[in-house]
Amino acid sequence: MLSPELLHGLRNLPLAARQAAEGFLNGAHASRRHGAGMEFSQYRPYQPGDDLRRLDWRLAARSDRYYLRESEVDTSLTVHLLLDASASMNHRDDNGLRKLDYARLLLAALAYLATQQGDAVGLSILSPAGLRHLAPRADARQLPRLYHALETAEAQGSFPTPETLAPLTARRQRALAVCVSDLYEKAGEIDALLTRLRATSGEVLLLHLMAHNELTFSYRSAVTFKDLETGQTLQLDADQQRPAYLQQLQQWLRETAQQARRQGFDYHLLDTAQPLDAAMREFLRRRQLAG
């Protein structure tokens, strides 16, 4: 798997998305042996450049092996991608990547996978400046639209108000909603949106994005922290505060995961220092269940 730093360094989101998706599928196949007693006469292993619409997604979800069907029987669905573009997503990890950079790469790769499968894919960029929404479509021009929207998205302000987000849940539409967010909120506004999406769409995959330096508190000595959404600053000794911080962080992560699963979301924690493969694997599994 290519690292997120290398993918970001390509400075070409369409190319990075394709490299990430096809590298993941090819690598997952190459790293596993075929199981005994399985019948492969109607399949062949995935190779880079193959038409992803012929992938057997059910087999992939069960076994993490990637094969193309020789007889084409496709299923498709609607995939609704959501990007949290509040200012906290500007937080930069030690590898130089912002959460926003990682989220762009991830959502572009998921859009590529879903579009190649024939799914109708839409995108909503959630920021206080207003809701930027591309309705789900399955035509050939949708993927460039999605890439452009992701490339030009900027993180700013706090998470948008319920009034701003109301159009997302104005009508019931069966879909798999995939939200990438760091879940920094003031009063449960992200949870409220996802709960409404769960009611109107049916399936929610919540990808909780955290920077590696947040997860490990890799800072040293005297540090000044600035809240990217409020502008407030805090000075502290990182070495002294590390044990208490990590304890509180783990408690928050446990409670966040428990609450998300109680709400019926498929929750997964992501580390911006790690490749995109874990998120893509969960997307394929959830896609199979939604289909």
UniProtKB/TrEMBL annotation:
* Organism of provenance: Hymenobacter properus
Tell me which InterPro entries the record gives.
Answer: DUF58 (IPR002881), vWFA_dom_sf (IPR036465)
Q: Which PANTHER family match?
A: BLL2464 PROTEIN, DUF58 DOMAIN-CONTAINING PROTEIN
* Protein's name according to its UniProt entry: DUF58 domain-containing protein
Where the record annotates domain DUF58, the positions are 42-248
Top-rank taxon, per record: Bacteria
The opening ranks of the lineage are: Bacteria, Pseudomonadati, Bacteroidota, Cytophagia, Cytophagales
